[in-house]
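name: query_chain
kind: protein
chains: 1
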Amino acid sequence: MFSVRGRGVARLAAATLVSSLVAVGAIATAGPAFADDAAGTGGVTAKLGGMTDRDSVKIFEKDGSDWVVQGGLFKMQVEGGGTLQTYCIDLRTEAKHDFDYKEVGWGESSLHNNENAGKILWVLENAYPKFSAEALGTKLGGVDLSKNEAAAGTQAAIWTFSDDVKAVPRSADAKKLTEYLLKEAVKLEEPKASLSLSPSSVAGKAGDRLGPITVNTNAETAKITPAPGTPAGVKIVDAQGNTVTEAKNGAELFFDVAAGTADGTAELSASATTKVSLGRAFVSIDGPSQTLILAGSSDSTVTAKASAAWAKKGAAPAVTVAKDCAKGGLEVIASNKGDDAWTFDLKGTSYTVAPGETKTIAVPLAEDEAYKFTITGPNGFEETFEGVLDCKTAPPGPKPSETPTTEPSTPAPSPSTPGTTTGDTTGGTTGSTGTTGGTAGGSTTTGGGDLAETGGSSATPMIAGIAAALVVIGGGAVFVLRKKKAAAH
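structure:
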């Protein structure tokens, strides 16, 4: 996933950048074909919160092993307003509470090579929360299905398609829902972006219309505005030269730069209020965290930006970056619409783009590798790109109970913030030993096996009790002397 930041608005990535970004691959002279929103910028940004409706699901691996995990809905808060509900499509990767996520197309996520991606969308369109637990229970023949069971049954079906495992809910009624969804699912086409502009950067000479920039959105219209500080003589227009303030899906926008305008740059912003389409993927931009897929959306605020650079003489650069999951890295697409060559530096290596030329530079990245780099050019041109390459579901590995616990963590589908409540309908909580199962009534009983389901073994309660007793006995004197300090911890 990538995000584009203009001059002065780059946000530092939360993850530590990996130095192997300096490895740059072969250069081609023509850009590849991308999905509508793959080479653009925009879409919803949201922060991952806790789980809401959830229940236990047993995972059967192909090697014959099995383990149990909580499966269900996550709640996300949209930057600018709105909420989202999502399911996990990356079973073995831990979810990081409060990480920021970005809406992307399937080609920029672990769904890029998944032949069952369309069936996952069918599940989302025909299961919970699109349909209520009561409605689904009726469809199953009068089953008394709770919200927690409906969420777990839906998640189990999704994991079967996304992670190539056998996922079976603990609840018999939830299992019926999973079996129904797997039997009936058919492939649907990928949903449209909430809002994106493609390409995100154009260039040319003063006196020309620079573009086109295509609007991709599921909203009825998007509001189009030039950024503050746009030079006089620069307007946002359509192909006929008419000033544009609103645009529909598929509309083409241009920067109309009047002849004689001093060399420079400008930016436009598109914004809309819309529901994000079910089935859109969400990937972390703060570091490795499990990939999610949209199951429900309130009206949310969506924005996208695009920039232009122009010059009377000399180089006129434009740059876009697209994540190429099929090739395992990024493609930096650099063009020069000027009449002089343009040379720029990319992580210690210089590249020259001749007048009228477009180059595509392959930047290999490891899975889950974070990246951030800035490309500069004449007349104040500067673009910063940052994100995390997240193109695969995590492969089979240690079960949650075998995972090292050098720092507090939880099983894959549960947020990793210690001590936070993961849902307002289940009564479960997330702590350093995992997530305790809850019920619709808000109880926190573990039901004979829930601790093992959350990443701890069945011996976890006894071990924890012994450890606590030793701490109390051995540290009693220190506690008396340093009561306030201990309380702070």
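note: The chain is about 15% helix and 35% strand.
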